[in-house]
User: What shape does this take?
Amino acid sequence: MAPQAASDLACDVLVVGSGAGGLSAAITARKRGLDVLVIEKEPFFGGTTAFSGGVLWVPGNPHAVRAGLPDTREAARTYLRHEAGNAYDEAAVEAFLDEGPRMIEFFERETEVKFVLSGYPDYHPDAPGGAKAGRSVTAAPFDARKLGREIARLRPPLETITFIGMMFNSSNEDLKHFFRATRSLTSAAYVARRLARHLKDLAIHRRGVQITSGNALAARLAKTAFDLGIPIRTGTAAESLSIADGRVTGAVMRDADGKRCITARRAVVLACGGFPHDKERIAKAYPHVARGAEHLSPTPAGNTGDGIRLGEAAGGAFEIRMANAAAWMPVSRVPLGGGRTGVFPHLVDRYKPGIVAVNRHGRRFTNEANSYHDTGAAMIRDGEGAGETAAWLICDHPTIRKYGLGYAKPAPVPIGLSLRNGYLVTGRTLPDLARAAGIDPDGLVATVDLYNRDAVRGEDPAFGRGSTAFNRFLGDAEHRPNPNVAPVAKGPFYALKLVMGDLGTFDGLRTDTVGRVLRPDAHPIPGLYAVGNDRASIMGGAYPGAGITLGPIMTFGFITGRHLADEAA
Assistant: This one.
């Protein structure tokens, strides 16, 4: 079927992708008078944002200012310069520091989007310019019933990190109640109320409606878009860009009815989520994949690099240049039944006392309570020269029943299914466990013996677990003297295999500070912009704190939308 005439569908701004980057640009442009259309190839809107923790890293944000938390622009600049190293982009960082707080103010004042202050320290709080708290905010919970019929098109949360579809808040406080449910009447009552409300929602709406984290952020952005009359056409892919006299003038899209052309009078904005499922590109960008190791990304399967390809086809510059091409995440493969498997991102369990990570030789190789990105980078380094890039989380019986391990939940939820389907491996003794998991038994026994000698005193001289405010933030505050350290001593013992995954890519199209896609000669391509993970990260392959993806994504989406409107004025 040939495309219909370009006049059949037209707008000022065409946004390709419906995550936080695309919707931020769309909403800002529409608020300033432009006619905006959003297309999304997946059947759901929300993109990777809907799977995320919904945390934004924005130094100087108004919530931190109101709370009186100490911080300065110079400290944030120093921290970013330290983290990014040679990849530090001064112009982009200055734009981010200028506009991030304004972005928060704009969305909270003008839209359904609301935030709450998060307690997260920076991931390297003791580095120059690092902060113990205040730079991260989290999307406020949202009642998805406010979406009306559109709730059916909101991307559900990542299945593996819910409990019978119930979401957990990104705040550590929410999770603490679930960990303490068998030991505290207050927590038991909290969990009972959450479960009762969730089961009622399932009966009525066939999904949870009291949503949190990135799902709440995606829903709040989409609700604003709908209220502003911005169409979000799901199941609609951009196949190519239309170019006339060197300017991008629209796109050819495909939906269930076939192909048609869309004219974009002002610009096309690429917001397709980067390339974490582009097998050819990640084989070049990810060192462990290049050497044949397994990689499982919990990002949406539709993030196949469409925006990068469209940008390159129009003459845009893309290169694999960052020290880390993605936000690394240790993950495990989860058997879900019926032949289905899922991917579990290990966001919380590694920090808990009594859980250590070892390689195939049975040796520890990093501080397991460091950030997921740092732990993933350590896994990649440890896998150099090996047949695979993998690690095993090891714990004893009291620990797994107290905290759970990966997809296996803490007591009172049984772990028998996770043992029967092979997700967990167990052994009466550590040598038994090692043989069952394919780990060197002598190495594991020696490692755990050495670790336990100091762990009984809450110490970890080998890797310094619990030595930073960030380590301790996600540990167990009730465990003394170190919230991240306890012995691995009381069998039976358990092992869970981790492989590498990611939360999204860092390398992307080169842009200027307003989002214009640049050619290799650094000249902008008229009419073409990129936001979100289609735009190269300003962090230079580093991961300084919770929300360093969404904070810049929404800030530069805001900048791009405003710039488009200003140009049209």
Summary: Residues 166-206 form one domain.
